Amino acid sequence: MDKHIHVASTLTLVFIVLLCHATTLVSAVDDPWTGLPVPPEPSPGFYKHLQACADVLTRDCGLEIYNYVLGSGHVGPPCCQKLKQMGETCNNDLAFALGRFDKYKKAALIIKTKSARMFSTCH
């Protein structure tokens, strides 16, 4: 698999995530991140860094985060634990990266805000 396609899947999986049109849970059959074109890497090694961040999360956790950040989902304790393990820098960088996708550019500020809120409220 092309590393950029894998990164795109990982980024959107994590927030994967996106706004008012994503108010219902996404099924495993219809992943919302399939087929998105990958924006250019903002700096060398950034996508590698994001991959290391996302490797901490499970697919199910990524979907929980996606639904929370872009809709009205809930992030449960197991996912919060993974999120805290991943760290705040990774959380912020993943939110930034997601907001760079054409599909989500208009929601970039909401993604950043909800992602930060999610991270701070996880115990």
Descriptive labels:
123 residues, 55% helix, globular
Overview of the molecule:
The structure is a single chain. Mean pLDDT is 79; it is low at 4-10 and 12-29. Helix 1 (3-14) packs across helix 2 (46-54) and helix 3 packs across helix 6. The longest helix is centred in the last third of the chain and has 14 residues, at 108-121. This protein has six helices and no strands. With 123 residues, the protein is mainly alpha-helical. Helix content is 55%, strand content 0%. It has one domain.
Structural class: mainly alpha
Q: How many separate helices?
A: 6
Number of strands: 0
Radius of gyration: 13 Å
Order of helices and strands: HHHHHH
What is the residue-averaged pLDDT?
79
Kindly give the count of domains: 1
Q: Residue ranges: pLDDT <50 for 5 or more in a row?
A: 4-10, 12-29
How is this fold's topology laid out?
Blueprint: H1 3-14, H2 46-54, H3 59-70, H4 77-86, H5 88-98, H6 108-121
Helix pairs in contact: 1-2, 1-3, 2-5, 3-6, 5-6
Keywords: Signal
InterPro entries: Bifun_inhib/LTP/seed_sf, DD11, Prolamin-like
Protein name: Prolamin-like domain-containing protein
